[in-house]
Amino acid sequence: MTTSPSDKPKRFYKEAAAEQMPGGWTVTLDGRSIKTPARAALCLPSQRLARAIAAEWNDQGEAIDLVGMHLTRLANVAIDRTPEARDEMADELARYCETDLLCHLAEGPLELVEREEAYWRPVREWAGQ
What we know:
Elements: E1 16-21, E2 24-29, E3 32-33, H1 47-58, H2 70-81, H3 86-94, H4 110-127
């Protein structure tokens, strides 16, 4: 299904920005926090993610292409749908742990061990919460 530019909502803001909020980070459009489709606060776990989502919004032209805003869509789903399906999603993800490289760290060479530690430790710690 493709949509024509006239089917897309018109851009109504000048600037998107990442801003700190209680409990995390959010994205603002001209100073107003955006909300998910279910009207929940878009509370993100890191400044880096908030900046990346703000960049998606800033990269929009005269019309907003919601389908092409992948990080925004993923964040919306994580916030709107995860709480009620948390156990089901955890079980689904657990099936991948047997083969996921994050669950099987290298023992060598040393350079690879160091890179895995630097890049994957934050993800592993987050997943362990």
